[in-house]
Amino acid sequence: MGIRRKGDTLIVQPVLPTQWEGFSATVQIEGQTYDIRVTRDADVELLVYVNELAIGDLQAGFPLS
Fold it and tell me: Is-above-0.85 flag for pTM?
């Protein structure tokens, strides 16, 4: 699903079958819960949210706190 930890960052780089509209997942890292949601927009671009915050730069990821 393309979810991994890299140091103090949560990286979400999803690869989905074309027929999937998206997915959601919950991960726990060091006692913190992160709710991840991936959706496709009208242009078939993947949109990624962690704890309801949009992640614009998938390479930079989401800082773990």
Answer: yes
